[in-house]
Q: What sequence folds into this?
């Protein structure tokens, strides 16, 4: 039986969304001068434009790509892209789905937009579909990192540059974590609550010149909800790409997002954020290498394992031999014990994913917190299985 650990992590927040705040975060660090001011006021517009510009610079996004702030988190950003851009005459769409949210995009394309020329390429949790099936003259919708599955695109080699087709990428748990190949992508979305450790409800969307041309020239046949409207009677709503939001943003959340971006820049930018994530993922890998008799990654292929949303499963026969209902109770008890001990919060696998644990290892998480937390998993597992 594993000995109960003596050391607790200083921050036990390992949720995959909303994610841990950056080290040293405090309310007192936020610039709250604009709270209570209209987002249409001059100072607020300036602050929103600063957020867009800092994001552009920090991520190294090409100068001719445009960025906007969307309502409804990453979900709103992806839906905004699909409702505005998909269905152009003569251009079909392929959806690559292997985890909960990419299946949601697939469902919306098939049952809400009801596009006649839509194809699905699917894989189960922990695996990837064949990304080589992307075609230059068809649109493609896919995630870069499967937040609920722990499987990610290993690199951009399998993504062909589009000709007439657009590449629409949900990168909410991948941006800030990997080298995103912007030149191969036409739409990229994410939310502040993931790799930035920001507050929820706000999303970001990046569009390439080709996506903007589609937006200018193509009008979908369906009615467009207000929060998705990127066009007016004169064409593209260009102020949207300078921080003039479609609906009212929270200036508190804006201040929080700017705090996170400035922190990333202060520690060395994207290179250091990537290094932090690599150290975090490495700490989990080192620990797992000593415990694979009873716990392992959900994705079997090391090349596609996420470095941010790491998904684990219990693999020993003492657990896998139990009926499903008992397995569920065991995992619930493990997660409950970890929370009660203040060792780890919110690390149960996603509700539709295979039963197990999910640990967020993004750039706002300190490696020593992960190293302090992991022995608690072994302790809780042994307590539950032998109790």
A:
């Amino acid at each position: 039986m594993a000995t109960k650990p003596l050391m607790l992590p200083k921050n036990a927040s390992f949720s995959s969304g909303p994610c841990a705040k950056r080290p040293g975060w405090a309310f007192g660090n936020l610039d709250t001068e604009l709270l209570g001011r209209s987002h249409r006021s001059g100072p607020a517009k300036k602050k929103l434009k600063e957020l867009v510009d800092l994001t552009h610079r920090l991520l190294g996004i090409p100068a001719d790509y445009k960025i906007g702030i969307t309502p409804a988190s990453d979900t709103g950003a992806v839906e905004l892209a699909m409702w505005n851009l998909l269905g152009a005459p003569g251009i079909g769409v392929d959806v690559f789905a292997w985890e909960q949210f990419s299946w949601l995009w697939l469902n919306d394309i098939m049952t809400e937009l009801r596009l006649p020329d839509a194809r699905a390429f699917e894989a189960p949790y922990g695996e990837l579909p064949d990304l080589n099936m992307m075609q230059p003259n068809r649109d493609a919708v896919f995630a870069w990192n499967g937040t609920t599955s722990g499987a990610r695109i290993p690199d951009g080699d399998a993504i062909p540059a589009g000709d007439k087709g657009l590449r629409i990428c949900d990168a909410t748990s991948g941006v800030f974590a990997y080298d995103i190949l912007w030149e191969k992508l036409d739409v990229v979305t994410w939310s502040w609550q993931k790799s930035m450790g920001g507050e929820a409800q706000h999303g970001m969307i990046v569009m390439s010149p080709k996506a903007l041309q589609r937006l200018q020239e193509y009008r979908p046949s369906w009615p467009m909800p207000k929060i998705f409207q990127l066009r007016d009677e004169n064409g593209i709503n260009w102020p949207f790409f300078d921080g003039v939001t479609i609906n009212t943003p929270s200036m508190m959340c804006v201040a929080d997002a700017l705090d996170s971006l400035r922190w990333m820049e202060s520690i060395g930018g994207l290179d250091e954020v990537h290094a932090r994530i690599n150290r975090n993922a490495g700490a989990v890998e080192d620990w797992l290498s000593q415990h694979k008799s009873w716990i392992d990654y959900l994705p079997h292929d090391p090349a596609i394992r996420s470095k941010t949303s790491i998904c684990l499963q219990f693999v020993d026969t003492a657990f896998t031999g139990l009926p499903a209902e008992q397995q569920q109770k065991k995992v619930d008890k493990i997660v409950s014990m970890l929370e009660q001990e203040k060792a780890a919060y919110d690390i149960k696998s996603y509700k539709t994913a295979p039963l197990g644990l999910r640990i967020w290892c993004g750039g706002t998480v300190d490696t020593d917190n992960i190293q302090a937390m992991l022995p608690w998993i072994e302790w809780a597992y042994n307590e539950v299985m032998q109790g």
Q: What stands out?
A: DSSP finds nine helices and twelve strands in the chain. Residues 37-265 form a domain with the Aspartate Aminotransferase; domain 2 fold (CATH 3.40.640.10). The CA atoms of residues 297 and 312 lie 4 Å apart. The chain has two domains: 37-265, 269-386.
